[in-house]
Amino acid sequence: MSLDNVQKDLDNLRAAVPELTGVLLATNDGKPIAHAVNENENPARIAAMAAAASSLGKRVSDTMSAGTLNELSLSGSDGQIFLYNAGGKAVLVVMGPTGANTGLIHLEARWAAREIGERLN
Questions:
Q1: Which of 91, 51, 89, 52 is closest to 71 using CA atoms?
Q2: Is the C or the N end of the chain the one with fewer CB within 10 Å?
Q3: For residue 58, what are the domain limits?
Q4: Exposed e or buried b per residue across 49-84, where buried means at least 16 C-beta atoms within 10 angstroms of its C-beta
Q5: Which run of H or E residues covers position 55?
Q6: Distance (Å, rounded) from C-alpha 86 to C-alpha 21?
Q7: Handedness of CA 67, 63, 107, 30 (dihedral sign)
Q8: How many domains does the chain have?
Q9: What span, in angstroms and rounded, lies between the C-alpha atoms of 2 and 5?
Q10: Residue 45 phi, psi (nearest 5)
Q11: Is the pTM of this model over 0.70?
Q12: What is the CATH number of the domain that holds 63?
């Protein structure tokens, strides 16, 4: 796996959706691989929380017979967070403001998660 290519994918995602406030790729056990987040954000903390949320989402998906977990969406009063399965080996975290264009975010982030997932395999 080339971290330079993964970082390039994250930078391209952030450029494709300028309103994003950050993107991060984490291992399934909560370690940051690469990121493009604001300097006041803690990548290790984001990675750990994303992995925990993804793990819970996988358990819910399995329990409710929904199949393999592809993505999770979280909406708060001050922002939105989207988690995408990246090849079963990582979690792509995409953060944006409330009211962001979710269609564009999903379009670009799903593509990025697929590309990154292929790089990790």
A1: 91
A2: C
A3: 3-120
A4: bbbebbeebbeeeeeeeeeebebbeeeeeeebbbbb
A5: helix 43-63
A6: 20
A7: negative
A8: 1
A9: 5
A10: -70, -45
A11: yes
A12: 3.30.450.30
At residue 40, what is the residue type? Answer: N
Question: Which tokens is 17 given?
Answer: 């959706």
Identify the H or E element spanning 67: none
44 close to 32: Cβ distance less than 8 angstroms: yes
- Calculate the alpha carbon distances from 102 to 25, 41, 62, 96, 107 in Å: 19, 22, 26, 9, 8
2-37 pLDDT, tens digit each? 778 898 999 999 999 999 999 999 999 999 999 999
- Residue 97 CB neighbour total at 10 angstroms: 11
Taken as a whole, the chain contains a residue count of 121
Q: Which two tokens stand for residue 119?
A: 């790089």
Cα separation, 8 vs 24, whole angstroms: 12
The pair of structure tokens assigned to 114 is 């697929």
Tokens of 79: 């922002």
